[in-house]
């Protein structure tokens, strides 16, 4: 049997989703507790966990509450790119900026959607000013989030058939 390369994605099964669900609730939960709750061996949980790490399905990070550590200005920025052939180049340039928490190409009225977290409104203004100097950025439209009610990872239970 050929060994699977880390770039080959194996389909996730119910056990993988269950392990991921426990890790989303508490990223520090022990393999022993997960194994007990799922009625499998610790080795099974460890093997599945290592595969999920190796194939990039999960990464273990310390997730902070942005407001509690000093980010006071959140915004959604719609970016219009002209000519359209520069979308990829503009997106790549935006993606490396540390303020960016989400970036996507859209099918709507604008080309790129950018969510940012900044220290304060002055920092946000400087970010938008810098963004508007990028070659290809034709126009931006910034919407400030006054209050964030939910900031979460996707609920894996939504994928249950």
From TrEMBL:
Keywords noted in UniProt = DNA-binding, Transcription, Transcription regulation
Entry's PROSITE patterns? HTH_ASNC_2
Alphabetized InterPro entries for the sequence: AsnC-type_HTH_dom, Dimeric_a/b-barrel, Tscrpt_reg_AsnC-like, Tscrpt_reg_AsnC/Lrp_C, WH-like_DNA-bd_sf, WH_DNA-bd_sf
Family matches, as SUPFAM superfamilies: Dimeric alpha+beta barrel (SSF54909), Winged helix' DNA-binding domain (SSF46785)
**An example of a Gene Ontology BP annotation on this entry?**
response to amino acid
Q: Which GO terms describe its cellular component?
A: cytosol
Please state every residue range assigned to the domain named HTH asnC-type. 12-72
**Family annotation (SMART domains):** HTH_ASNC (SM00344)
A Pfam family found in this protein is HTH_24
MF-aspect GO terms: sequence-specific DNA binding
Q: What is this protein called?
A: Lrp/AsnC family transcriptional regulator for asnA, asnC and gidA
Organism in which the protein naturally occurs = Chitinophaga ginsengisoli
